[in-house]
Write a structure and sequence with these properties.
Blueprint lengths: L1 H49 L3 H12 L7 E8 L7 E5 L13 H7 L3 E4 L16 H4 L2 E9 L2 E9 L7 H9 L1 H41 L2 E7 L4 E4 L10 H10 L1 H12 L4 E10 L2 E13 L5 E10 L1 H50 L5 H31 L8 E3 L1 H18 L3 E6 L7 E3 L1 H17 L5 E9 L2 E8 L21 H7 L5 H11 L3 E7 L3 E9 L16 H5 L6 E5 L3 H13 L3 E5 L2 H10 L6 E4 L8 H10 L6 E5 L4 H10 L3 E4 L4 H10 L8
Parallel strand pairs: 12-14, 18-19, 18-20, 20-21, 21-22
Antiparallel strand pairs: 1-2, 1-5, 3-4, 4-5, 6-7, 6-10, 8-9, 9-10, 11-13, 14-15, 15-17, 16-17
Helix pairs in contact: 1-2, 2-6, 9-10, 9-16, 10-14, 11-12, 12-14, 17-18
């Protein structure tokens, strides 16, 4: 019995020993397998490290897996879960599978969550529907799929076999154990794929940019150049240009020009950008102008590498500028010649016109019957129209030739409006239309402005409105808005067609030819108004409807009078000039016999004694002989032998201190200045009317004149 118990105990110890030895053997086998797997993984990682393409990396992974799992084809898939719906093939052992589109489904979603799935009927799985009849061997075989998520990407490893029993639980366990290696491999493949794609895109863009630059450089008219620090050319384009300038020859010529080279080297030494450095060169028999521009460029360490820039052929531009300058000089000469011609013509026309108007004045004060008075009145209107025409043409010429300047002074705008109203109201009454004027209380009492030119604007606009209005009338209003003087001239006349509004400010232009024939005029009034307004810093605008009337609006800046400036005296009324002027002895220096007769007739009718001189020399001789006998001198500017300017200077040097009044047809501003500078006291333009002559004599009668 004891022997039996010993035998049973020994048998139990033997079985435990056998189990222990079996377990030890199994552990050793597992350690051996793990060691082999680790060696395989390490060798795969080493191979992947040395691999240069994604195909080599994938082959290294498959080489490890193939030791433990048998398959016919393998491929790696990837998609960006944020931007892509389908999976794309990263790499495959069968190139025909690279073009297949793999849709996502429940199986792929399970795999990216960490499962390894074996498929024994691939044709029934949505993800493998893409395996059509040309992949029938795979459809009837088996598939083993493992997936994972890497950043924003979902990646999949798919093993395919034509056999139905290729993949079992052990195959699934192998993939699970190799998941870290699979993850690293797929990440590397995906990274290289993306990098390769990005490099390809960037390379294409770079090539396209390089080609674009080359095309631009070849078709542009500029040279593109690059120099290093030693002034050596590292790049020079070949532009498309008509100039016969060789780029290499251009650089050689720059180097040979010591002044230009020194200047460029100085700029390079100080690392300064430069632009539009003009350089004159000669190539063959032709002269060229080149414009150089450049800027420094640096390496990554901030060290100066060289200069890049352009060289532009500006010969054509230079020639055009020179031609424009010559054309401008010729135009200025022509304009000056025109202005001089107009000034001469003005003088020549005013001289006989003075006699015409003077004789008309004399006739109007003589004993004439009603018919004769009507004839003389018509003659006077025609002569006045001719005088207006001469004045308008002369004003326009002075403005266009820049010989016109403003003479601002302290003035009362309300007085100018009143003065113009008094001059034009009779014209409105004769046409049986009304003329109304108003000045707002907000208009400043005094402003700093050229009173004569402001009055001229008023006369032109209001006179124009009266001319083209046959019913109703003209309304003039003067207002102020902030720092702007606003003048409105509104009429109920014939109006202007819309398509003609833009032309009415052009010289010698009216709305149409029929208007000119019906109403007369030169069309200069509005043009002169616009130029005067713009010179005064203002604007003029017009609104009109045919047969309804026209509204002109002038806006001029209000400038306050300077400190200490006195307001102007109230204009003298006609009654001032109706006062009797005491008889005076007056010397009239005038070369025209007709004008001598007219002026003498006017003066003698006013009770004065007149002595005539035909030129400046005679005038000087008369006064030297009878220095104290003359009370006043009327001196023409343009006379033979000695002109009025020279005669005046001679008289002043001789001690003659009585008033000398210019009596001349020269109506330019510079003529007035010359007269005053020569020593004359005042300036009266021809044609001279009896009233204007009486007015100036009243101002300079004995007892009122002071030095």
């Amino acid at each position: 019995m004891a022997s039996q118990r010993l035998t049973a105990s020994a048998r139990s110890d033997s079985e435990s020993l056998q189990e222990t030895l079996f377990e030890l053997s199994r552990v050793e086998a597992r350690e051996k397998r793990l060691r082999e797997e680790n060696d395989a993984i390490l060798s795969a990682i080493s191979a992947m490290t040395e691999a240069t393409t994604k195909t080599d990396i994938f082959a290294s992974l498959l080489g490890v897996i193939r030791r433990y799992v048998s398959f016919d084809s393998a491929l790696a898939l990837s998609r960006n879960r944020e931007t892509e719906d389908a999976f794309r093939c990263l790499v495959a052992t069968d190139s025909s599978l690279e073009t297949v589109t793999w849709q996502t489904g429940e199986v792929f979603r399970r795999c990216v969550r960490g499962e390894t799935v074996a498929i024994y009927k691939p044709g029934l799985v949505k993800e493998l529907h893409c395996l059509t009849h040309q992949y029938a061997g795979y459809i009837n075989g088996t598939a083993l799929i493992s997936g994972l998520t890497v950043n924003d990407s979902e990646v999949m490893l798919v093993l395919l076999s034509h056999r139905r029993d290729s993949f079992n639980d052990e195959a699934q366990q192998v993939l699970d154990r190799f998941r870290p290696l699979i993850q690293r491999t797929i990440m590397d493949i995906d990274y290289r794929h993306r990098l390769h794609t990005l490099v390809g895109i960037r390379t294409q863009e770079l090539n396209a940019s390089r080609q674009r630059f080359q095309d631009f450089a070849q078709t542009a008219s500029d040279w593109f150049w690059e120099l290093d620090n030693s002034f050596h050319l590292t790049y020079l384009s070949s532009p498309s240009t008509d100039a016969d300038i060789d780029p290499e020859a251009l650089l050689n010529k720059i180097k040979s020009d010591t002044a230009l080279k020194a200047r460029l080297e100085r700029l390079i030494r100080h690392e300064k950008a430069f632009s539009d450095i003009e350089w004159h060169m000669r190539a063959g028999t032709n002269d060229y102008w080149v414009s150089l521009s450049g800027r420094p460029f640096y390496n990554k360490r901030g060290e100066l590498v060289g200069y890049r820039g352009t060289a532009k052929d500006i010969t054509t531009t230079k020639r055009r500028v020179e031609e424009l300058q010559q054309a401008r000089q010729q135009a200025e000469l022509a304009n000056n010649a025109k202005s001089q011609f107009l000034a001469v013509m003005s003088h020549e026309i005013r001289t006989p016109l003075n006699a015409v108007l003077g004789l008309i004045d004399a006739l109007q004060h003589s004993s004439l019957n009603a018919d004769q008075m009507a004839w003389v009145g018509q003659m006077d209107k025609s002569a006045q129209l001719l005088l207006t025409l001469i004045s308008d043409v002369l004003d326009l010429s002075k403005i266009e030739s820049n010989r016109f300047s403003l003479s601002p002074s302290v003035m009362r705008p309300s007085d100018s409006v009143t003065n113009v109203y008094q001059q034009l109201v009779d014209r409105a009454d004769k046409k049986h239309i009304y003329l109304s004027m108003s000045v707002s209380s907000v208009v400043p009492e005094t402003i700093f402005m050229d009173e004569n030119r402001f009055t001229q604007i008023l006369l032109n606009l209001i006179g124009n409105a009266l001319k083209f209005t046959d019913r109703g009338g003209v309304t003039v209003s003067l207002d102020a808005e902030q720092h702007t003087l606003v003048l409105w001239v509104k009429d109920t006349g014939i109006g202007i067609e819309e398509n003609q509004l833009a032309r009415i400010f052009d010289p010698f232009t009216q709305a149409d030819g029929s208007i000119t024939r019906r109403f007369g005029g030169t069309g200069l009034g509005l043009s002169i108004c616009k130029k005067l307004v713009e010179m005064m810093g203002g604007t003029i605008s017009v609104q009109s409807e045919p047969n309804q009337g026209t509204d002109f609006c002038v806006r001029l800046p209000i400038i306050a009078p300077p400190d200490g400036a006195l307001p102007p005296e109230r204009p003298k009324t006609d009654e001032n000039h109706d006062d009797v002027v005491p008889p005076m002895t007056i010397l009239v220096a005038e070369d025209s016999r007709a004008n001598q007769m007219v002026v003498r007739l006017m003066l003698e009718k006013q009770g004065h004694r007149v002595i005539l001189a035909s030129n400046g020399e005679e005038a000087v001789h008369h006064i030297q002989q009878h220095l104290d006998d003359f009370d006043l001198v009327l001196m023409d500017m343009s006379m033979p032998v000695m002109d009025g300017i020279a005669a005046t200077k001679a008289l002043r040097m001789a001690g003659f201190d009585k008033p000398i009044i210019a009596l001349t047809a020269n109506a330019m501003d510079e003529d007035r200045r010359r007269c005053i500078q020569a020593g004359m006291n005042d300036f009266v333009t021809k044609p001279v009317r009896a009233e204007s002559l009486h007015a100036v004599l009243s101002d300079y009668q004995p007892g009122l004149h002071t030095e």
